[in-house]
Amino acid sequence: MYLTYFNGNWNEGNVPLYGAMDHSLWLGSSVFDGARAMGGKLPDLRPHLERVITSAEKLGLRCPLSVDEMEALVREGVAKFPADAELYIRPLVFGTDGFLIPVPEASQFALTLFDAPLPPFAGFSACLSTMLRPQPTMAPTDAKASALYANSTRAMREAKARGFDQAIVLDAEGNVAEFASSNLFIVAADGAVVTPKLNGTFLAGITRARVIALLAQEGVKVEERIVGPEELLTAREIFSTGNYGKVTPCTRFEDHTMEAGPVARRARELYLAFTEAS
Ligand code: PMP
């Protein structure tokens, strides 16, 4: 079931949100986030809602709801599904008036919830994208802005055309940034668990931060440092983190195949235990 809250009402199905003169439709002023409900648990919901507000601000939009108001709506929506449902939660803020001028004059909020089981811990393949992440001076890279996903979509289309499930995107310096729609970790050839150091060109993932903290509690230190693309070819493990799939192993990078390894498996278990306790 798809359930959308918009303008004070809950409706099922693909509810129309846009007006023909909305700024977001013509000029790309929308931001969104994603979170999960798993058996009534809402891991890290508040950071995702806080990010909706900050993402909106970075595009000159104003989220019309506070975090508390959004959280209350999310809980109201989740309660409309069976108690054990696995749901995806998508808040959206988009510019409405002012489609002829670069600055949106008003913003709206919408929230969509739908059934989406957590993807299994199954390996996916990834290739190296020819797209690069834009630099912070070129695009609102510190916001979860819909407009940035035009490039993620190009990277994914290129990957699919080459027979891969995912794309790994480099930053403008030629270092590994992230997957097209999630953050990236490796277990390097020397056994170190590593993730690219935040440099403003890719999303500071909430799941990334959570996984780093959960592994640290187990005594596994994640090194945040520059990762060169050549390290992907010798990595023992590569895995992704993101709000949709949580922790998922990449078992093939270009021609280099790997097992779904113990660090990714442990990180996934820890995330699920954290969810249970949240
Ligand atoms: N990078 C990109 C481009 C993404 O779309 C996502 C998913 N939101 C992530 C990273 C992971 O971020 P988070 O863990 O905050 O969902």
From TrEMBL:
Entry cofactors: pyridoxal 5'-phosphate
PROSITE patterns for the chain: AA_TRANSFER_CLASS_4
Top-level taxon of the source organism: Bacteria
Keyword Transferase: yes
This protein's pathway: Amino-acid biosynthesis; L-leucine biosynthesis; L-leucine from 3-methyl-2-oxobutanoate: step 4/4; Amino-acid biosynthesis; L-valine biosynthesis; L-valine from pyruvate: step 4/4; Amino-acid biosynthesis; L-isoleucine biosynthesis; L-isoleucine from 2-oxobutanoate: step 4/4
One of the record's GO cellular component terms: cytosol
Pfam families: Aminotran_4
Reactions catalysed, as given in the entry: L-isoleucine + 2-oxoglutarate = (S)-3-methyl-2-oxopentanoate + L-glutamate; L-valine + 2-oxoglutarate = 3-methyl-2-oxobutanoate + L-glutamate; L-leucine + 2-oxoglutarate = 4-methyl-2-oxopentanoate + L-glutamate
Assigned keywords, A-Z: Aminotransferase, Pyridoxal phosphate, Transferase
Gene Ontology terms, MF aspect: branched-chain-amino-acid transaminase activity
EC class (word): transferase
InterPro entries: Aminotrans_IV, Aminotrans_IV_CS, Aminotransferase-like, BCAT-like_C, BCAT-like_N, Class-IV_PLP-Dep_Aminotrnsfr
Transmembrane segments: none
Gene3D superfamilies: 3.30.470.10, D-amino Acid Aminotransferase, subunit A, domain 2
Any single biological process term in GO: carboxylic acid biosynthetic process
Catalytic activity, EC: 2.6.1.42
CDD domains with a match to the protein in the record: PLPDE_IV (cd00449)
Family (UniProt): Belongs to the class-IV pyridoxal-phosphate-dependent aminotransferase family.
NCBIfam families in the cross-refs: PRK13356.1
Record's function text: Acts on leucine, isoleucine and valine.
Name of this protein: branched-chain-amino-acid transaminase
